[in-house]
Amino acid sequence: MFKRVIVWFRNDLRVHDHAPLFYASQKAEEVIPVYCFDPRNFGKVNLEIDKTGNHRARFLIESVDNLKNNLVNLGGDLVILQGKPEELLVDIAKKYQVDAIFFSEEVTSEEKKVELNLEGHAWKHGIKTTAYWQSSLYNIQDLPFPVMQTPEVFTQFRKECEKFAKVQPTLPTPKQIKFPNNLNDLGEMPELSTFGLKEPDHSSRSVLVFKGGETEGIRRLQAYFWEKDLLKVYKETRNGLLGSDYSSKFSAWLSMGCLSPRFIYEEVKRYEKERKKNQSTYWLIFELIWRDYFRFICKKHGEKVFQLGGIKNNVDKWSRNENYFWRWANGETGIPFIDANMRELNETGFMSNRGRQNVASFLVNDLGIDWRWGAMYFESQLIDYDVCSNWGNWMYVAGVGNDPRENRYFNIMRQAQNYDRKGDYIRHWIQELAEIPGFDIHQPFELSTSQLKNYKVVLGSTYPHPLVRYKAWI
Question: Is there a binding annotation on residue 224?
Fold first, then answer.
């Protein structure tokens, strides 16, 4: 039994199914929950891109604030720090005579480096550290193979896990958090301006108002599964582009750990018992397994995930044309299906799965630009940024990841025909093209100057000429 334990929250901003919090409440007389805003996560990366953009930072602050409220409701509180956690956590531990620090284990290099530095620093001062694995659906200890032998092909990974691994039950939320009475310096919640960021404008065109926090995540699940009864059609609708309910949108809350994947899994199983079991209910679990797969692949391959050649060591010739990259990033490529998706991302911090595949393929395969630039831009902008899924998917599209098929090329016009035949998605996000009827809105560069004039469009003025154009698209 410990006298005092710090629970360091990271990408696990919840009180349900939380191993460090649960075991600290069992093993310690008093628990000090801590969240640390690390300035290294808010600097600039290549091309002066914000490592964490304003949409994602806003969602994070909301999530931490909600965590604090949920801890207070359990009799606890949350200490807010700003600085390097490997230093500040040990300082607090020394100040308040803490015996141990419990935290969630991460897998990628930046996070692992912080863990190792924390463990080394704490050990010097006689403070114990315990890391818990809790970020995946399947626990790392329950995999049917050593993690360093994780299959390179997803289908093999999925089949082996489904056959031989079990999903452990969720851990109960502690009934009470015993917080020290003498701890008064709780710190302050930062503003976006603290990190040199501006408050994002609320977009009236957003498919969903994403608000951070466990409470909102559970509310979204309740609405999608139980109130609107949409899980039963998930597989049929998940490739949609417009509207709040074509997919679950759980990814934002999963990415910051506001929702536990095991909690979602248990709710799916309850839905199957109480409502309906079909391909759609299975498919949502299938997507959680994809998320696991990228996590274990990242643990297996380490730094290779972030290198140009990926895990295949396949270093092709990539362009680093900054002008083309920024036209892609700003939604100014002259290809409406690409531009609409990028404008949605920039305005809301979200983009559909179908959109992500298309814009990534366009950047990599049509423009030939270094795939890591795209991955960094998504890291900055996406509110549901997950390091393993993001970099894993970008490797996949770039042909340097885990795909038995060599060519992940997306024919933009064929995709537009399949998923936005009437052009409603383009009209929603590119209003300067809104008067062009039907599918023609996807290819204004195929219309005559007089036709465009009728629709109040001037290529090169009101809307850009296309960066590239292929007969194969048409």
Answer: no
